[in-house]
């Protein structure tokens, strides 16, 4: 075999190994039900925080937060997060929870907040401005 063939085979083998290693890092978003079916496995949940379910006392323990998360199908699970409470978690439309189901709760390692749309609350104002602009054009 020529040296170029050996080098190409080695490069192909390295490429395949890199692709396989990246495949292990690919994660999908799970529902509460599917996460409960994979206890101890690292998953990502997209959910909303149930109103008035947050348990956080910064004086007692600033690194303990618990709340109930509800997914888009209406299933819920208790979430325990042992880290600093994310700012404005109460205002977030949705949250992405990264962690594992441990027994009857979700042991969360990281929380990503999905910010509410800054235009959502101003829809009536935007419609009013569009109507004013249309009236101005017709004059």
Query: What is the rounded distance between the termini?
Result: 83 Å
**How is the largest sheet built, in terms of strand order?**
2-3-4-6-5
Biggest sheet character? 5 strands, mixed, barrel
The general outline is: elongated
Helix content estimate: 25-40%
Secondary-structure-derived class: alpha/beta
Averaged pLDDT = 81
**Poorly predicted tracts of residues:** 132-139
Order of helices and strands: HEHEEEEEH
Percent of residues in beta strands? Answer: 25-35%
Number of strands: 6
Gyration radius from CA atoms, angstroms? 24 Å
Number of helices: 3
Give a short overview.
The chain is α/β, with parallel strands linked by helices and 139 residues long. It has helices at 3-25, 32-36, 123-138; strands spanning 29-30, 43-49, 65-70, 76-81, 94-102, 105-114.
